[in-house]
């Protein structure tokens, strides 16, 4: 049997971690453009520069804790921001796409920078230069027969929508977003068929994604903003199918497995409650309604969701065509320790003695991938697409310029073996496999460059030094064989 014909072997990236050119071609500022790098291994978080009402400046945790009244995030000229140049796809896209084609990619996942199309987010008319930029990219990909998969929002929000409107808490943001969506759907309807709405929607809880400064202290505002995201995602599906009935519009979630620490029923129950941080989203976006437990949870917390007339119908009518998910690691649930889970950290609070972890504490678990593939397939019976997977690691460049990364090859090989079992033995409908950061990009969680995932090395360090030249790692040649043999040669 093996992987189906036309299986999408490819790779994945995101605009703010890869593109650079943060003000080029009329692009406006996104929240990501005001966030500094951090240091994942020493637990130094990424931060935002704030201008205070009295004219002074202050840096705060990007999750938006304790933002003083009147504070505005801004770009401090003396500080290095990883998104500004990133790994410069903006100027290297032809070279990079040629390298993807050389590897045999059938598909490539990228996100559109919302602020390239609508620099402030609330304009009526789009920025033509921004639209042209993605036209050029899609044309370049299609020239090689590489199918684009576009994430509409990948950890991205125009800064202006956060500072002026309170981001996704404000219902108006749905309209601004839909204007953006309609613009790109109409413009690219003959070039792009596969879409994803919000990247890792289950991690869209902090300032970066929601644009709500008090994200941590106001669960009611977060719940309302999340409702707006879900309505917006459903509207995207409905509108997309009107614009082009052939569109395949998926959701995107981080879907890891969580094991109970042991057979204590309380730990199993803990596992179920932690799992709900994910199944809430997959349920709403696939079944089309809020699960009962969520409504009870909100009620008990005194949260009253403001739903407009028609919202429930929209959720029902806007269920997705496929499920895109990222999978990196698994964690352990126990009543003894509170789960630690943020957008930047998939580290399990409890170590699993059966698994090894990477340098950032992410536990490596190929069998877990087969488990979640089965779980999602059994629960929803929708096509699945692994749109992120991979190993963040520090690579060494040898004197002759070569980069030997057997650890990366081994990680992916083990995961593909389990994918294959899910397809061959369990009958899961799997559309494709897109290793994350197929070319080195900035880390989303830490802003570091040294945490690399790529088959292609980019010369750039954590402080923004490097000439950005590209180099093929050993894994490049390995993945080439995988793509060319449709997963037969591992
Ligand atoms: C996911 C994100 C990606 C990506 C990846 C790896 O959460 O969707 O944007 O970066 O994780 O995470 P990190 O970059 O923190 O290693």
UniProtKB/TrEMBL annotation:
Signal peptide: none annotated. GO terms for biological process: carbohydrate catabolic process. GO terms for molecular function: beta-glucosidase activity. InterPro entries: GH (IPR017853), GH_1_N_CS (IPR033132), Glyco_hydro_1 (IPR001360). One of its GO terms (cellular component) is cytosol. Pfam families: Glyco_hydro_1. Belongs to the glycosyl hydrolase 1 family. This is 6-phospho-beta-glucosidase. It comes from Faecalibacillus faecis.
């Amino acid at each position: 049997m093996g992987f189906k014909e036309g299986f999408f072997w490819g790779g994945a990236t995101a605009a703010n971690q890869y593109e650079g050119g943060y003000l080029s071609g009329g692009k406006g500022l996104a929240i990501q453009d005001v966030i500094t790098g951090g240091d994942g291994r020493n637990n130094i978080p990424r931060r935002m520069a704030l201008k205070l009402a009295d004219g002074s400046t202050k840096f705060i945790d990007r999750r938006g804790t304790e933002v003083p009244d009147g504070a505005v995030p801004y770009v401090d000229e003396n500080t290095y921001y990883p998104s500004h140049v990133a790994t410069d796809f903006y100027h290297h896209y032809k070279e990079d796409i040629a390298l993807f084609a050389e590897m045999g990619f059938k598909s490539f996942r990228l996100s559109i920078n919302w602020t390239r199309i609508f620099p402030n987010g609330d304009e009526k008319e789009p920025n033509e230069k921004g639209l042209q930029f993605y036209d050029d990219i899609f044309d370049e990909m299609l020239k090689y027969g590489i199918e684009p998969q576009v994430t509409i929002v990948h950890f991205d929000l125009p800064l202006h929508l956060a500072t002026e409107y309170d981001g996704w808490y404000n219902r108006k943001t749905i309209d601004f977003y839909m204007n953006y969506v309609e613009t790109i759907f109409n413009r690219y309807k003959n070039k792009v068929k596969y879409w994803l709405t919000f990247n890792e929607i289950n991690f869209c809880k902090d300032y970066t994604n929601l644009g709500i400064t008090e994200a941590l202290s106001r669960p009611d505002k977060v719940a309302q903003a999340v409702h707006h995201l879900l309505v917006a995602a459903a509207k995207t599906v409905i509108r997309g199918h009107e614009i082009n009935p052939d569109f395949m519009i998926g959701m995107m979630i981080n879907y890891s497995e969580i094991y109970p620490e042991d057979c204590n029923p309380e730990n199993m129950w803990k596992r179920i409650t932690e799992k709900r941080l994910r199944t809430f989203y997959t349920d709403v976006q696939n079944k089309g309604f809020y699960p009962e437990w969520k409504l009870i949870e909100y009620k008990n917390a005194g949260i009253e969701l403001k739903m407009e007339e028609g919202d429930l119908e929209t959720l029902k009518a806007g269920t997705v065509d496929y499920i895109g998910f990222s999978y990196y690691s698994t964690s352990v649930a126990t009543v003894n320790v509170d789960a630690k889970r943020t957008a930047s950290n998939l580290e399990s609070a409890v170590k699993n003695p059966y698994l090894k972890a990477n340098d950032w504490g992410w536990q490596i678990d190929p069998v877990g991938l087969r488990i979640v593939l089965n779980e999602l397939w059994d629960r929803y019976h929708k096509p699945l697409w692994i749109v992120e997977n991979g190993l963040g690691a520090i690579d060494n460049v040898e004197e002759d310029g070569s980069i030997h990364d057997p650890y990366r090859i081994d990680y992916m090989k083990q995961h593909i073996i389990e994918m294959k079992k899910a397809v061959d033995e369990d009958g899961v409908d799997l559309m494709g496999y897109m290793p994350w950061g197929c070319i080195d990009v900035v880390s989303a969680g830490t802003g570091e460059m040294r945490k690399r995932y790529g088959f292609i090395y980019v010369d750039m360090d954590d402080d923004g030094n490097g000439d950005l030249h590209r180099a093929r790692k050993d894994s490049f040649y390995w993945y080439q064989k995988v793509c060319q043999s449709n997963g037969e040669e591992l």
